[in-house]
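Complex 396.
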Amino acid sequence: MSAADRARAAMVDALCTAGRVRSPAVEQALRAVPRHLFLPGASVAAAYADGAVAVQHVDGAATSSASQPSMVAIMLEQLDLRPGHRVLEIGAGTGWNAALMARIVGAAGHVTTVDIDADLVAGTLGHLAAADVSGVEVVCGDGALGHPAAAPYDRIVLTVGSDDVWPAWVAQLAPGGRLLLPLALRGSQLSMALDLAPDGTLHSHSQRTCGFIRLRGMGASARPAVALPGGVALHGPDDGPAPDRAAVAAALADPGPLVDSPVVVGPADTWDGFGLWLALTDPGALRLVAGGPDSGLPDPLGPAGAVACAAPAGEDSGIAVVVVRDGPAAVRAYGPGGPAQARRMLAALEAWAEVGAPAAPEWRFTIVSGPPPPAAPPSGVSTVRMAHCHLLARLP
Ligand SMILES: C[S@@+](CC[C@H](N)C(=O)[O-])C[C@H]1O[C@@H](n2cnc3c(N)ncnc32)[C@H](O)[C@@H]1O
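Predicted structure with S-adenosylmethionine bound:
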């Protein structure tokens, strides 16, 4: 057994022990496909560590990576591939995930993988040949349009984040097919598995927390993150009025009091627990993420960033930011309008706790093409408008 084989076996053992790998098909594929051959520029140790490995940067930002093995395993379990399935992947990257999928669908199935970048496509082809993988067609194109030539697909998977569900993906799914994508929801991002119903709507089967780099090309976000002082990035809202950068920066330079909340918020809750709740129930919610350890703010923003309520314009400009501590959380008010925003945030925290502090897996989502109807949604249902569709979210 080579050092690479031993490292791969150890990686898969750890993924199984952690419960990331659940099915024999996913386990066998991860054991069989040599990830280091898809990362010729990385050491064997890096290729088999449980981390994403960036393979391309543009202006200092990663534009392609081999995704983190545990996230790949989680998504393969969500995808539920079967022998004979026809699969479209958007985001070929190194080709590692395409090779894993080809292994699972077998000779009777077929994998088409698309990347927008011709250099990456050339690399993908080379890696697949080096690993002696067959059954994968590699296409250079903009995945927002899918790949109609090989449709319909039993499964369509994006390994790159999107803030919309493009009509081509729905049109190219076979009846009863599944679309799996990292979907951005007002600053949160969920790996969402959606099953196609006969009426063309998509219904969530499962969702997991994730954080993927975003689509380039036609599907690039119309509302990229706004850079604030101290390396802080401001995300969202995607579908409401754009926040006023200068007003947000001015408010953050004016920290006010810290107000205690009785509600316990863990670090992960700012992403897919309370953070997701606020994003879905308060269209004006924002997310602040610090690029480095020193944001210049009085409270650390945490690895998942912090959620904020804001009225960032006019004389009452103000922001309230959730502060995660051991035990009950607090809310920091910023700017002259901060105390009013803090009251809004404290009420949202209590509302989240009252419904049992739900996290991402507990929500049920439906994607419907086109804009939402003018009538308000039924009580308990939140609507998020996207460019080509709208999302309905509810708790069961
Ligand atoms: C996280 S990487 C994918 C990882 C890959 N599945 C692997 O196994 O290595 C995301 C990829 O999406 C690609 N991408 C970005 N926008 C795209 C688009 N509009 N269409 C197709 N691919 C796109 C990037 O070039 C990048 O290679």
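The first strand starts at residue 53 and ends at 58.
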